[in-house]
Write a structure and sequence with these properties.
Two copies of one chain form a homodimer. In chain A, about 40% of the residues lie in helices and about 20% in strands. With about 240 residues, chain A is α/β, with parallel strands linked by helices. The first copy, chain A, has a five-stranded parallel β-sheet with strand order 2-1-3-4-5, with helices on both faces. In chain A, strands 6-7-8-9 form a four-stranded antiparallel β-sheet, covered by helices on one side. Chains A and B meet through helix 4 of A and helix 1 and helix 5 of B. Chain A binds a DNA duplex (30 and 30 nucleotides) through helix 6 and helix 8.
DNA sequence: GCAGTCCTTACGAATCCCTGACGTTCGCCA
DNA sequence: TGGCGAACGTCAGGGATTCGTAAGGACTGC
């Protein structure tokens, strides 16, 4: 009998869900907060976790990450509204599926079965998780975890501001693409119009923090008359000076 | 409602992508491997294809090629990392855009909309290009990536200015065709009138950078009394009987 | 040899980007 | 509540790059 861990701080929700899953033939475990969820998941790893995104104490994303550290384990996220942000966050952390509140318990059961079916079928040879590793971005010396809002360079954490972080995330997601200031303003700032020098200045400040030599940037290069382009360093760091 | 075909062997990825595209108002079809992708694309041609580069059985590049044989059809490639190799490959096959994993589904939706918008507005009144918009270009020792705004010659990057880049892009898109200065002024500069010597000078500067012997150009030759013609080095005969 | 066309060079002007600095806003803490 | 500092957006000066044009010389075809 497959075990499922349900994590939700609302006992009404978790009880209803547990009931439906039990009737569907699952062995159900319940946790009401983040720490106990992580504890149970590590002590007795279930086959799947149903996880509320909004938890008291520890964030659902953080829980997801902790659980995933112990091993590959399918996760279904319960997100508040049909909030786009939440869904994206969930997926980036590596949730296998998500259900938006309010949801019908039967639908949730169907989702659980579906995810387990998927997880059971493709037996990946490696110990790699059956889920796509959507968690974390990496390019050369840089790493970036959108969920944790943390970025590192050569293993050391970068003190980035909000804008700088968003900007770097955009660049990491769009490597090797020349992007105009207008588009950066749209995609990073969300503005349709605005002073483009804002972009210029923030690129400069970002370079200050991630480039070896900010005066001669190698990661974020200027494309004259067009915009900027992030070039992920090639695998081999050695290059000849022409 | 526009149909989009999503091709990925990982059901998690394709389902998530399909979900987002559906919510964005697209009619989504899914295929898990190369042969079925080609089958579906030919049976019921969609408006656009989202294609994973790494597929079991048939390579994504091969799939792209097969699909393209049936007719003009925008393709967005999903490439593994910010891997330069993959991007070049994808562009050579003629992908219209690429998204690197890990990607946020929202990003992909934006790309799909962007490519469709571009494809929907056929700019050139000329009967020349069928599909090409953002596709990578290559001719002899030259490669040109419009998205990255980068051009190489014998693998080494060329330092081209905006005008030089646009000019070279035009020539690569219109090989073997003699083009008058007036037309170059219209198509590259976007001017209806202007000093034609401007074109002359820029052609010269471009020759300086891409020709072995700029005094005796072989790539961009002068057609006396007419204009210029770009001759791709004879590697594979591509007849232009249109 | 001639007229028309093209190539080469040079230079001022325009464009674009970087830099530093400033005022404002917002959150935090005394 | 008021002060403080970080982060943000804006602006102007300065430097570097690029562009467009003109002028003279070289070449082509007749």
């Amino acid at each position: 009998m497959k075990r499922v861990l349900v994590v939700d701080d609302d006992p009404t929700v978790s009880e209803v869900v547990a009931g439906y899953l039990t009737r569907a033939g699952f062995d159900v475990d319940v946790a009401a907060d983040g720490p106990s969820a992580v504890a149970r998941a590590t002590a007795q790893p279930p086959e799947l976790v149903v996880l509320d995104l909004m938890l008291p104490g520890m964030d659902g994303l953080e829980v997801c990450r902790r659980i995933r550290e112990t091993g590959p384990l399918p996760v279904i996220m319960l997100t508040a509204r049909g909030d786009e942000e939440d869904r994206i966050l969930g997926l980036e952390v590596g949730a296998d599926d998500y259900v938006t509140k309010p949801f019908s318990p039967r639908e949730l059961v169907l989702r659980v079965e579906s995810v387990l079916r998927r997880a059971g079928a493709p037996a990946t040879a490696q110990g790699a998780p059956s889920v796509p590793r959507l968690t974390g971005l990496r390019a050369g010396p840089l790493t970036l975890d959108p969920a944790a809002r943390r970025a590192t360079r050569c293993g050391r954490e970068l003190a980035l501001t909000i804008r700088e972080f968003d900007l770097l995330e955009f660049f990491l997601r769009n490597p090797g693409r020349a992007t105009s200031r207008e588009e950066l303003m749209r995609r990073v700032w969300g503005w349709e119009f605005g002073d483009l020098s804002t972009v210029t200045v923030h690129v400069r400040r970002l370079r200050e923090k991630i480039e070896d030599d900010p005066a001669h940037p190698r990661l974020i290069s200027t494309v004259w008359g067009v915009g900027y382009r992030f070039d992920p360093p090639a695998a081999n760091g050695a290059d000849d000076a022409a």
